[in-house]
Amino acid sequence: MTPIAVTIAGSDSGGGAGIQADLKTFSALGVYGASVITALTAQNTKGVTAIHDAPAEFIAAQIDAVFSDLDVAAVKIGMVSQRAAIEAIAAGLERWRLRKVVLDPVMIATSGDRLLAPDAIDVLKRALIPRALVITPNLPEAAALLDSPIAESEAQMREQGERLLALGAPAVLIKGGHGSGAESVDLLVEATSVTRLAADRVATKNTHGTGCTLSSAVAAGLAKGADLAAAVRDAKSYVTAALVASERIKIGSGHGPVHHFHAWW
């Protein structure tokens, strides 16, 4: 049976992040991808110049259209900038009884542009995080969710991951890509265990869409039947290889994208 995953996220007109990165990742990993678009963005490798949010009722219509027809095995949720959109997505997840949900709490783009309205953060924490199997914040996002300073050590990352579990998701993948040091370390924090995932830090400015790519790679693994730990390990390996290969493609003049199809091109 063909594994199917759905991305619920914003569109990146530059093609490096958001819906576009998610669908590329699904395809590269052998998963059929469908989409629910929450917002249109005017952006490129240098930044976001405009955002046009989809109405909540249209987001709900897309969810119902997709899930009433396709046998969806996993869902990735990315940019949801407004509280009404978050509430519509939470209701859709409940309506269709979706449990393999990867939530990437996208708040700020690689360029530094804010993508989540301040008044939507509480709704994200209350309505959406408890419906996720795993959330995948980077260091600034974890700090913002907890209203705390950014973690500067693995011990602090673990402590913040454990605090985030209290928001209701069974697992937290706290990502160390914004950290320093020779290794890029992510921690998969669950109620009874912590799994350390390390890779050599890749020296490149082509980091646009890295978080989107990682979360959608986790969803792809879940769609293919992997357990969470295996899906996260494979996603980490895929993103690291995509970062290493990003220097082989020349896209834009700012933060270029990772190379989603490094194994094929």
The CATH architecture can be named as 3-Layer(aba) Sandwich
CATH class label: Alpha Beta
CATH topology: UDP-N-acetylmuramoyl-L-alanine:D-glutamate ligase
What distance separates the N and C termini? 26 Å
Number of strands: 9
Question: Helical segment tally?
Answer: 8
Main β sheet profile:
9 strands, mixed
Name the structural class: alpha/beta
- CATH homology superfamily: Ribokinase
- Which residues form runs of ≥5 with pLDDT under 50? none
Please give the domain count: 1
Q: How much β-strand is present in the residues?
A: 15-25%
- Average pLDDT value? 94
Radius of gyration: 17 Å
Shape: globular
State the helicity in percent bands: 25-40%
Detailed description of the structure:
The protein is built from eight helices and nine strands. It is α/β, with parallel strands linked by helices and 265 residues long. Strands 3-2-1-4-5-6-7-8-9 form a nine-stranded mixed sheet. Strand 2 and strand 3 form a beta hairpin. The chain is globular and about 45 Å long.
